[in-house]
């Protein structure tokens, strides 16, 4: 019996959205980091990104009912002010209504998303000091928590330049099981992305099916793939893909599965772009970057349902994104069906 092959996680957890009627086919709606839930094979989620956890709630990204973030609120701390009835006197009020600040908005498009005309890529990094990897949940959390701010630093200016919303991704490393807005997740499965959070199974990638070589590059590559789902979520492409799957009859239809492969392979391509800044200026050893690229290129559907793309196509897309580092290189929505099989 052949050894199990590494795979991506379940489809991203982007829905459901308020007001949508029931799907014709109730396929899994979970991600890349995986996907909608972005639970792709690269997905990671750390156990403690407490400095970022409150941000998801405060900026209106808990679901897609509100999309009015601004770039001003991007620090890793949040201050909440509660006003009681006793303090709301006529002398302190400035207005009877509060206007939502204008700011960048997500755009719900796929192949014709305007981001592809911007030419943006992941910005170069001057440094990214990463701790030595210890292959246990606490050690993995330290490593991922150090890498994530570097990824944010590479992508935040690009999204701002494209006039698209930005907020940091949250990392949650967990053991046992955890509950997410996209459903429960076990630590004996791959990482998953869901609504701004990367859920990372502590210890999983150190012992994945007995086939994965213990290497920090595997973790950096998986984290980059999951962050690719975060970009899809921020830009609106994840919600647009969810709507498109609904329109063709559901996730588990042939057209729905092809749409999910396009979503996942785009996250793989964006993961390759994310690794580009790490390969410049010796920010991290090239062995780490190359291992991340190689691991991403070995993941795919295998004997699973065809929702993440073949391993050869994962390899092509991750390398294409890495070499080009241009967002239009990751327009999987406009690719031929063969390129996303």
TrEMBL record:
Membrane-crossing residue ranges in chain numbering: 29-52
Entry GO terms, CC: membrane
Subcellular locations according to the entry: Membrane
One Pfam family per UniProt: Zn_peptidase
Composition bias type Basic and acidic residues, residue spans: 296-308
Topology relative to the membrane: Single-pass membrane protein
Superkingdom per UniProt: Bacteria
Sorted UniProt keywords: Membrane, Transmembrane, Transmembrane helix
UniProt region (Disordered), positions on chain: 75-101, 291-316
Coiled-coil intervals: none
Cross-referenced PANTHER family: INNER MEMBRANE PROTEIN, PUTATIVE MEMBRANE PROTEIN YPFJ
Name the UniProt record assigns to this protein: Neutral zinc metallopeptidase
Species of provenance: Lentzea waywayandensis
């Amino acid at each position: 019996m052949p050894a199990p092959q590494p795979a991506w996680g379940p489809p991203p957890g982007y829905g459901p959205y308020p007001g949508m009627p029931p799907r014709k086919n109730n396929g899994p709606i979970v991600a890349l980091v995986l996907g909608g839930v972005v639970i792709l094979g690269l997905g990671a989620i750390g156990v403690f990104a407490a400095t970022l956890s409150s941000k998801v709630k405060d900026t209106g990204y808990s679901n897609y009912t509100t999309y009015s973030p601004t770039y001003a609120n991007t620090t890793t701390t949040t201050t909440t002010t509660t006003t009681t009835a006793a303090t709301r006197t006529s002398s302190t009020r400035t207005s009877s209504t509060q206007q939502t600040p204008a700011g960048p908005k997500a755009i719900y498009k796929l192949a014709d998303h305007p981001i592809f005309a911007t030419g943006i890529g992941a910005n170069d990094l001057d440094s990214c000091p990463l701790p030595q990897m210890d292959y246990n949940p606490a050690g993995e959390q330290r490593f991922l928590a150090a890498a994530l701010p570097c990824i944010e630093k590479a992508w935040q200016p690009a999204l701002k330049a494209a006039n698209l919303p930005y907020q940091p991704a949250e990392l949650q490393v967990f053991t046992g099981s955890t509950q997410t807005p996209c459903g429960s997740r076990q630590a004996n499965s791959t990482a998953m992305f869901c609504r701004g959070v990367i859920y990372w199974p502590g210890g999983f990638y150190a012992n994945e099916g007995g086939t994965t070589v213990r290497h920090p590059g595997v973790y950096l590559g998986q984290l980059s793939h999951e962050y690719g789902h975060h970009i899809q979520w921020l830009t609106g492409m994840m919600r647009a893909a969810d709507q498109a799957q609904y329109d063709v009859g559901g996730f588990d239809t042939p057209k729905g599965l092809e749409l999910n492969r396009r979503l996942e392979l785009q996250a793989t391509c964006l993961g390759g772009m994310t690794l580009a800044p790490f390969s410049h200026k010796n920010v991290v050893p090239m062995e780490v970057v190359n291992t991340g690229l190689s691991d991403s290129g070995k993941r795919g559907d295998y004997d699973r349902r065809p929702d993440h793309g073949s391993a050869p196509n994962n390899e092509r897309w991750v390398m294409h994104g890495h070499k080009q580092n241009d967002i239009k290189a990751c327009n999987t929505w406009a690719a031929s069906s063969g390129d996303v099989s």
